[in-house]
Amino acid sequence: MGRRSDAIARFTEEAEASGLQVEVRTYPEGTRTAADAAAAVGCHVDQIVKSLVFMADVRPVLVLCSGGRRVDEERLARYLGTEIRIAGASEVRAATGFAIGGTPPLGHTVPLRTVVDPHLMDFEEVWAAAGTPDSVFPVKPKDLVQATSGAVVGITH
Q1: What pLDDT, on the 0 to 100 scale, is given for residue 3?
Q2: pTM summary value
């Protein structure tokens, strides 16, 4: 229990330092996948923000992707100007300080270059992980882009 609440507290502190006021909600049934999160929250799966870490050479890059979309790795590689690959679980934890399934869009161990799926901008509100596989928070997409200094780039299909 301590680790879970520590992860949420760490995320919340960092989010608020970035200018976001967050209201974390927890769902005991879990929000690990986009479909799980959408069912728990009661929204469309496209309103779920998947926080995906890719390795661009040796540097981690965060992609905030709409829940119903997939990252087009060729497009992402072209945008970044280097070869990429999906990060492994240990690389995700090293870069973000959080486990896969609970990785929030900000508050990471190291500052991450962030790319945001433009499809998220189609919604008034989206939901992102808040540090644990059973916690999420609602946010306006434009506020998420501002807080993460993310670049809105068409890298999904």
Answers
A1: 53
A2: 0.94
